[in-house]
Amino acid sequence: MSRPCIARHPHLALIGLILIWGVGYPIMKIGLAYCPPLLFAGLRAVGGGLLLTALALRHDGRPDLAGTWRALLVSAVFNVLLFFGLSTLSVQLLPAGIASVVLYLQPVFIAGLAHVWLGERLTSTKMAGLLLGFSGVAAIMVQGMHGTLSPSGLAYGVGSAAAWALGTVAFKRAAPRSILWFIALPFLLGGLLIVASGLAFGERWADIAWTPTFVLVLAYGSAVGLALSWTLWLALVAAGEASRMAGNTFLVPLVSVAAGTLFLGEPLTAMLAVGGLAVMAGVYLVNRPAVAG
């Protein structure tokens, strides 16, 4: 999807992104049953990178490496190697709901970084919306908090949120000509580094169960969960304020809960209802226009 198309239909792009990410954690859990975590993350990244490389060659021609190699390297390290690697390890060690809560610290991180590096105004209303949205996410997921939480899992989650925030702000600051190349090349490089890390830490190709289910999950994760969603995400960030776009991602866990209630018969508790209302109020405050004067 091109940047002009995003500019014309930002709400449709945002809805698509939230729906894709809303089912992301359950699908990731399915894939982890068939494949070690770092190999799974690396294969998804490489697969999505190859798909986007083909699209970038057709749509944008050759990449502008001379002008963007520093930003591409930053993206490979933060958006791929650290974000995908650490978030996958976090999901492996924590309940999916708790991992989601920790990951959704990223809008708060992005707001602070965008204020310092991009000059985006961090108003009291926007900050209140970010904190309210995060509180709502925490309320939605709190009932999944059973037993002792892994300190390593929590550290991986916070690290993945910080990496995502740094990578997003670096992209906005770099303003690359081609979003497709900016995603494709870092995901190819970062994905290979994640695979190499997995092998170095003892994961083996023989541990992957190449069942039809795993192949479908891997294909979906590469093409939709990565290639399509990150194209939508960075195009939205390019078209608007990074902090405002990040605040909208608080709706992702709300979609996950709604899907579980509608399609899996999971109960809608009072805590879920309160959390959902807090998320919607937070997103409203983040997107509320600043009052002049």
What would you say this structure looks like, in words?
- This protein has helices at residues 3-8, 10-22, 24-32, 37-60, 65-93, 96-103, 106-118, 124-141, 151-174, 179-200, 212-239, 242-248, 251-263, 270-287.
- Helix 4 runs antiparallel to helix 10 and helix 8 (124-141) packs antiparallel against helix 14 (270-287).
- The protein is globular, with a radius of gyration of 18 Å.
- It is mostly helical.
Give the tags.
293 residues, mainly alpha
In short:
The protein is mainly alpha-helical. It contains 14 helices and no strands. Helix 5 (65-93) packs across helix 10 (179-200), helix 6 (96-103) runs antiparallel to helix 8 and helix 6 packs across helix 9.
Blueprint (SSEs and pairs):
Layout: H1 3-8, H2 10-22, H3 24-32, H4 37-60, H5 65-93, H6 96-103, H7 106-118, H8 124-141, H9 151-174, H10 179-200, H11 212-239, H12 242-248, H13 251-263, H14 270-287
